[in-house]
Design goal:
alpha+beta; two-stranded parallel ribbon; 5 helices; elongated
Length: 105
């Protein structure tokens, strides 16, 4: 059971506990999760790392440090990507008009 010291279940248990969640656990195991990962709360780490954008290029290394901090604090990090806006690639065509608008989303 996924119960921390305060006696309350982690919300992550909704996708990790019970027979009906076996497919979920299988998916997580396929990418390297272990039994102990399921006993800790899942913490999402959003990352806009992008290889072709200098201002976001360092975020891959930074996300690794953040994830280690989550592990050290007793959580299970799950990194996910968000699409970054790249003004350099957008310059000179119609897509550049949406650059600032997309940042507001």
């Amino acid at each position: 059971m996924n119960v921390p010291s305060n006696g309350r279940k982690h919300r992550s248990a909704r996708v990790t506990e019970g027979l009906e969640r076996a497919p979920h656990r299988a998916m997580f195991r396929a990418v390297g999760f272990r039994d102990e990962d399921f006993r800790r709360p899942f913490i999402g780490v959003a990352n806009t790392w992008f290889e072709a954008q200098p201002c976001n290029h360092h975020l891959r290394r930074l996300a690794e440090l953040v994830k280690q901090g989550i592990r050290d604090a007793g959580g299970t990090p799950i990194e996910f990507n968000a699409v970054p806006v790249n003004d350099a690639i957008g310059m000179g065509h119609e897509g550049m008009r949406a650059s600032l608008v997309s940042r507001e989303l």
